[in-house]
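Why should sequence recovery work at all? Because a backbone constrains its sequence more than one might expect. Tight turns favour small or flexible residues, buried strands favour hydrophobic ones, and helices have their own preferences. The token representation captures these environments compactly. In the example below, the structure is given first.
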């Protein structure tokens, strides 16, 4: 029944959650994040019984260590594909983990953070990153470490919507806020606004730039509920960040699609991106972002039934992975370009599941690509190098 429902939604002209406050079906906690550290060890952050758990593998995911609880005291944790715990590493072996914590009021949350300075054996007591403590949306956290070792977090925030409603003024969507730490995650500077009018429930993509900064790519709201995407570099030098429109599909929908984008920036500065829209028909798009203009090399990658794509780049190789649902189950799909995104090979099925699945993640290790895929039957790491 669940797969049939997803299929009908994905194949519809506008497969969206019409309003953020609609009741969502109960799903297993499949939101997980995987990452390779500087030594090539695989780490996995997922959730169980009110804890974010951290495990590592030295055999590419075939076996894992015993889990370590990131938060010693259990608490509610968002753990779906768009709003899953995040994982990043510092230049001195620090392990950073973030997650969104539901509050008592529906659809609200706090962004939480903890760190380990001893290789994942012990974690600090979790802190709430933002200074604003209103019981509103602070959710869909995105975590990254820049070239100077600063820890950056961005999230979707509804404080401006709450202020507008209190003043009797309209406000579409939410906003994106961010903060950073200069002391290896011990504390965070007061948050600052990155952009007004973001989509309410689409994940934010972060990626390092060749200059060592962190760039963001997220679904924004333009005009009367046009749900396109914006690009911005997260400034940490006191200057103002500038979010510029980067996709121009003009998809008009009064609700959040729950489909965030992906971003990977090559050493030459090419901004490789993947995103979802359903203006006419559901489509996953690839393009090279030119903020303020239409994306270069834009091409449709997958159609009806495709969702939650991710992207990775190394040299001239570009990999795209996504979930593809049909009446038989859910497939993990891959396409690869060997010429920097000019052309992509035919779609290839990496795996098929007949159980619930999470959103795929593309990972790089020594120039080789892997896809991390969490399913109700267990976590899988699949090689993606075959053209």
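From this structural description, the recovered sequence reads:
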């Amino acid at each position: 029944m669940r797969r049939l429902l997803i299929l009908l939604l994905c194949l519809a002209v506008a497969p969206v959650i019409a309003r953020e406050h609609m009741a969502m079906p109960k799903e297993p906690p499949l939101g997980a994040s995987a990452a390779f550290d500087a030594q090539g060890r695989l780490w996995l952050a997922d959730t169980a019984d009110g804890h974010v758990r951290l495990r590592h593998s030295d055999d590419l995911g075939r076996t894992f260590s015993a889990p370590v609880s990131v938060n010693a005291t259990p608490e509610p944790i968002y753990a779906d594909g768009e709003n899953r715990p995040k994982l990043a590493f510092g230049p001195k072996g620090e392990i950073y983990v973030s997650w969104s914590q539901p509050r008592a009021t529906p659809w609200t949350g706090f962004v939480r953070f903890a760190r380990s300075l001893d290789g994942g054996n012990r974690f600090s007591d979790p802190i709430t990153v933002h200074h604003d403590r209103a019981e509103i949306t602070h959710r869909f956290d995105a975590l990254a470490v820049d070239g100077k070792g600063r820890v950056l977090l961005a999230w979707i925030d509804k404080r401006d919507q709450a202020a507008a409603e209190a003043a009797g003024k309209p406000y579409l969507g939410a906003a994106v806020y961010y903060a950073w730490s200069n002391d290896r995650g011990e504390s965070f500077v007061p948050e600052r606004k990155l952009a007004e009018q973001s989509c309410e429930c689409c994940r934010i993509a972060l990626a390092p730039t060749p200059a060592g900064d962190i760039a963001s790519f997220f679904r924004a709201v333009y005009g009367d509920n046009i749900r396109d995407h914006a690009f911005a570099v997260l400034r940490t030098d006191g200057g103002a960040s500038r979010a510029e429109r980067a996709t121009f599909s003009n998809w008009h929908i009064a609700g959040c699609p729950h489909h965030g984008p992906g971003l990977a920036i090559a050493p030459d500065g090419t901004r490789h991106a993947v995103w979802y829209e359903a203006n006419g028909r559901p489509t996953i798009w690839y393009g090279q972002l030119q903020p303020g203009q239409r994306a270069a090399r834009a091409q449709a990658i997958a159609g009806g039934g495709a969702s939650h794509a991710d992207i990775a780049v190394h040299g001239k190789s570009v990999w795209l992975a996504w979930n593809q649902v049909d009446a038989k189950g859910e497939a993990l799909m891959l396409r690869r370009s060997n010429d920097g995104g000019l052309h992509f090979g035919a779609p290839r099925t990496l795996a098929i599941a007949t159980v619930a699945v999470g959103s795929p993640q593309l990972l790089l290790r020594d120039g080789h690509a892997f896809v991390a895929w969490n399913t109700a039957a267990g976590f899988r790491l699949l090689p993606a190098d075959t053209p």
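A few observations help interpret the result. The CA atoms of residues 169 and 197 lie 14 Å apart.
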